[in-house]
């Protein structure tokens, strides 16, 4: 994996070769080198390992996605801020299967760093709401669900938000003890 600065240096170098090819009269080669330099500029903003991890995650291959993310040795120097957000978001999704506390830490970091798209940030808020609900912090979960609903402008997470609200209602419902109800007189009669 190339560091983010090295990607820009390579792109500038290839662009310089493209200009040299234009000066020499090789227009086709110059265009090809410009397109090649644009690939490195694209990879500056979209990390190749994060893209491959997303592809693995779409196929529900969590170990494969983890393998690609583990190839990023030092995310603070290798990734720009939004990529660090996605790195933490993906790690949070994978860790949430086993360890909710560690997943919350990853999701909080992704929320702090920010993500490019609103529906991705809505997904982070939804996952944080799920973690808060599992830790019995209902007020925080309600606030996070409201934020997720505001961020989900295209309605991609409507079903998940609705299901989370139903789970919250179920968790707030009083517990019923079957067979123990009735009036005090009825309970005394049963005990005789």
Give your account of this protein's structure.
The chain has eleven helices and no strands. The radius of gyration is 26 Å and the shape is elongated. Helix 1 (4-24) packs antiparallel against helix 2 (27-45). It has 192 residues and is mainly α. The N and C termini lie far apart (78 Å). Helix content is 77%, strand content 0%. This is DUF2892 domain-containing protein. It comes from Olleya sediminilitoris. Residues 168-192 are annotated as: Disordered.
Count of helical regions = 11
Let me know the largest β-sheet. none
Radius of gyration: 26 Å
Terminal CA distance: 78 Å
- Ranges where pLDDT stays below 50 over 5 or more residues in a row are none
**Structural class, from secondary structure content?**
mainly alpha
- Mean of all residue-level pLDDT scores: 84
User: How much strand content do the residues show?
Assistant: under 5%
Number of strands: 0
Overall 3D form: elongated
Proportion of helical residues: over 70%
Order of H and E elements:
HHHHHHHHHHH
Protein name: DUF2892 domain-containing protein
InterPro entries: TPR-like_helical_dom_sf
Region (Disordered): 168-192
Compose a concise summary of this entry.
This is DUF2892 domain-containing protein. The protein is mostly helical and about 190 residues long. It has helices at about 5-25, 25-45, 50-60, 60-70, 75-80, 80-95, 100-115, 120-135, 140-150, 160-170, 185-190.
């Amino acid at each position: 994996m190339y560091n983010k600065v090295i990607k820009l240096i390579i792109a500038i170098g290839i662009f310089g070769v493209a200009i040299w090819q234009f000066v020499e009269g090789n227009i086709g080669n110059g265009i090809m080198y410009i397109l090649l330099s644009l690939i490195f500029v694209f990879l500056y903003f979209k990390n190749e390992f994060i893209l491959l991890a997303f592809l693995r995650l779409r196929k529900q291959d969590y170990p494969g996605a983890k393998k690609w993310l583990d190839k990023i040795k030092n995310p603070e120097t290798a990734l720009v801020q939004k990529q660090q957000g996605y790195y933490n978001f993906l790690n949070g999704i994978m860790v949430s299967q086993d360890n909710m506390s560690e997943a919350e830490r990853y999701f909080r970091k992704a929320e702090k760093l920010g993500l490019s798209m609103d529906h991705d940030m809505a997904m982070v808020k939804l996952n944080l709401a799920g973690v808060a609900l599992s830790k019995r912090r209902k007020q925080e979960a309600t606030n996070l669900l409201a934020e997720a609903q505001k961020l989900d402008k295209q309605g991609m997470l409507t079903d998940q938000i609705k299901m989370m609200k139903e789970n919250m209602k179920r968790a707030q419902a009083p517990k019923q003890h079957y067979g123990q109800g009735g009036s005090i007189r009825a309970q005394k009669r049963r005990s005789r």
